[in-house]
Amino acid sequence: MSETDGKYEFQSEAKQVLDLMIHSVYSNPDIFLRELISNASDALDKLRIASLSDESLGFSQDEAKITVRLDPEAKTISVSDNGMGMSRDDLIAFLGTIAKSGTKEFISAMREARGNGDLIGQFGVGFYSSFIVSNRVTVDSRKAGSDESWLWDSTGDGTFTISPGTRTGWGTDVTLHVKDTEKDDDEAPEAKNYLSRWALREIIKKYSDFVSYPIFIEDASEKKPDDKKEEKPEPVNSMKALWIRPEPSVTDEEYNEFYKHVSHDWENPMERIVYKAEGTNEFYALLFIPSRPPFDLFYRDGKHGIELYIRRVFIMNDCRDLMPEYLRFVRGVVDSEDLPLNVSREILQQDHLTSLIKRGLVRKVLDALKKMKSDKPDEYKKFWGMFGEVLKEGIVSDTKNREALMKLALFNSSKSGQTSLDDYAANMKEGQKSIYYITGGKSDALSSSPKLEVFRDRGIDVLLLSDPIDELWIPSVHEFESHHFANAAAADTEIEGGDAESKSEETPGDSFISGVRDALKELGQFASVEDVRYSSRLVGSPATFVQKGEPMSPQMRNFFRSMGQEAPPEHKILEINASHPLVRKISNQEGRDLKDWAVLLAGLASISDGEPLADAPAFTETLVKLLGE
Ligand code: ADP
After folding, report:
1. Ligand 1 proximal residues by C-beta, below 6 Å
2. Nearest CA residue ID for atom 4, ligand 1
3. What pLDDT digit, counting tens, does each position of 466-517 carry?
4. Which domains does the chain have, with CATH numbers?
5. φ and ψ at residue 234, rounded to 5 degrees
6. H or E stretch including 521?
7. For residue 114, what are the contacts with CB-CB under 8 A and spacing of at least 6?
8. pLDDT per residue over 210-256, tens digit each?
9. Which of 54, 278, 327, 626 is least enclosed by beta carbons within 10 angstroms?
10. Whose CA is closest to 158, among 21, 45, 43?
């Protein structure tokens, strides 16, 4: 080894992903070539964009190309590009680490799924997929503007080496030493099958036909005709932008493969949207809704899925200005006819055209979802299960489309399982004007809350708003089509409509209530209880807490605490069920000290609300004492 040579360890996450690559069984190993060609095409895009501001880099569209070379004798396949290339530091950083947030969580999910190759697709491992079909990979690269080449070399065993390379021009050669099925690994794909021009051509046509640079295949075993003048080779791919072709001329398979190219997903999309906007602001859009959530859906720096092209030229990926946050799961391409080619992220942010395009795209996506909801309700339910929580962010942030988003939303509910607001309104009980809801926790726990007893009794449906985002949109949305939203846990919510099956009997009288109130006041642990009263909402439970004003769920309070903030003060009222046998029994014991019973009733109310007990040992002691009597 020379002075500049070095041996390096992969970052531990990268090592684990590599291990998964090497040992998992893949349903589709062919995608390694798609990944390498995508990287080559990205490197050419990078060089083209960099040379706009640095003339010395000199990008030439006519010379830009990707070459796939196979050597059946040496058992190698290499993918070469004359793009941006990588420096020595780049090789170490880009091919030795994984900088994506959520990598750790992804790896543990993969482990649990025991090498489920489909999960990997969600993550988009790119370069590392080379190790599915090969047992050694070398990367010889020269960065644009530099006169040094460097060679990255690894057998995927946890380390890689860096030494001087041999590449003479700018760009990169990635060479795979393909696995020998018999010798290396019984489970390895039929690697030898890749060592033919025909096989590689099929894969490229299938997965990378639309790549905008020409892709050539060279076979070292084919003799060059020495007498004839060499013919100009034809690229394998058509390089046609799929999004400008009329929809009927493109097959589903072509669309699906394109989706996989832009999304790094391995599965077909759930829905596609093909759109051409005409008039003063012309653009093409080819958008997809994935059939499963990307792994980084809830990470702040998670990927956004829109690539921007201007007049067929790639400009940037991850284009956040064209799609709002709440549609960050949408993948695809937007190709504008009118934006200037030298547009930057900063200019895009302020450009009037950008906001017009964004508005058009949002409308198209929401229309497509609306159609899916009415035409394919089962599929839509699946969609909602995966992306509903994200879409609901739009109810808070996108006031212009709030109405449309509310109509798209599905909610778990106590009576009908799942409902839209339209259906809820259509199925209201006679005399019912409000839309009732309850927030917090998990929807199964919510549905058995004592606060819903009277609603169940009267046949009234209640929305179970268990996503954290629900408590953010509810305060800003007061009504849906003139029906007020009313919280079932609020002290002053009137319960209208429906016929009660069980009629409440006479109450035990005010002295019992004031006795419990006085007892609670004396006990320090119930400071937040402001009042005690008989309940009109309980049927089967003895007691519950309701809140004055807008109740905040225990989960939301915890969230405040975890952010180091004080949650707003609680104004609790303990409601007691006058007709419950336990309450009747206590209230009939005249002259008795109510302290223990007050602790019991308040404690039971806390437990059924999913709240921690203010003083658990005192509660247990009291319970044991009362049971022993
Ligand atoms: P991704 O493409 O999703 O970022 P990869 O693992 O495929 O992940 O590649 C990691 C990084 O290595 C790329 O982001 C890019 O910076 C660099 N890279 C890979 N292949 C090439 C190439 N042919 N030319 C230049 N850079 C490359």
Report:
1. 35, 39-40, 43, 81, 83-86, 94-95, 124, 126-128, 172
2. 126
3. 888 898 899 889 899 999 999 998 988 888 887 766 555 566 777 888 888 8
4. 3-219 (3.30.565.10), 242-379 (3.30.230.80), 409-487 (3.40.50.11260), 510-628 (1.20.120.790)
5. -95, 135
6. helix 510-522
7. none
8. 888 999 999 999 876 665 666 778 999 988 889 999 999 999 999 99
9. 278
10. 21
